[in-house]
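Blinded run. Sample ID left blank on purpose so nobody reads anything into the name before looking at the predicted structure. Input follows.
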Amino acid sequence: MLDFFHLKSISEIHNLFGLGKPAHPLITIVKEWPATDFDFANIKMTSDLYVLGMKGQTKGTFKYGRNSYDYRKGTLVFIGPNQVAQFENADKENDKDSWSIFFHPDLIRKSELGKTIKDYAFFNYGLNEALHLAENEKYILTDLVHRIEIELNQNVDEHSQQIILTNLESILKYCQRYYDRQIQMRTTLNKDIIIRFEAFLESYFSSEQLANTGLPSVTDCGTALNMSGSYLSDLLKLETGRSAKDHIYYYMIEKAKTKLIEKGFSISEVAYSLGFKYPQHFSKLFKSKTGISPSEYIKLN
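Blinded prediction complete.
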C-alpha cells in the first residue's frame, strides 16, 4: 500500500526541496524542480494548497479514451486542496520549461477570486484530463507566471497583493478558455462519450441498483466512463447545453412519468422504486423539474 504525504503550507514545499525561506507565505512559484532524494513514485500526495503544474518539455502521447494525442507542446495539470495526486514513471530529468504555482486558499479568501474559485471546475479534473497547450497558449500563461514572480521577488508595497491576484485570476481565466477549446476540438470523441453516458444511464435506470442506492451521482457517472465527474459535466454542457446532473434528472423524470401513469403504482411506490427514502423529496424534485406535482401529472393523463 502506498504511503500518504500531506503538505500544509508553502513553507513545507520550500523545506522539502531546500528552496530556502519563501518570499510570500501563501504563494510560491517553483521552476526547474531541484534534485531531491524524496521518492514521489511511492506516495500519494495531498495538500491544503491549490497547484498548477506545467510540464514543459514532455514528449510522448496522452491517452484519452481509446485514442492518443501528442502533447509535445506542454501539459498543465490542476490539483485542488485535499485531492490525491499520484505520480507514475516520473521523469527525473531537469525540465527547463516547467513551472508550478502553489497557493494557499487564504491568499484569495477575502478577494473576488475567493468567491469564484469554485467555478473553475478543472481543479476537480483528474490528472488524465490535463490541459494540453499550443505554443502561443503556453507563452501567454508563462508570461503571466513571470509577472507574479517579479512581484514576489521585489519589495512588497500596497499594490503587490492585488497585482498578484490579478495575474493569478488571468491565468485561471485563460485556462478556462483553453479547456473549452480542448473539449470542443474533440467533437468525435465527445459524441462517443455522450453515447456511452446515455447507455450507462439507460442501464442504471433499468436495474435494481436504482431502487437500492438511489440516483447515480455525477461522480458515479464519471467513474463509469473513466473520467472525473467535473470533466464529464463540462463536456456535456459544451456539447448538449445541459450538465451531467441535468441528464440524470431527465432520466429520472422520464422513468417517474412512465410509472405514474401505470395503474397500481402509488406516488410513494414510485418514489421508493427510484431510490428516494422520502416520497415528499421525490414530489418536490418532480415539481421543480416539470412545473406540476406527481398527483397533478396523474390527473392530466
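Unblinding after everyone has recorded impressions. The CA atoms of residues 125 and 228 lie 6 Å apart.
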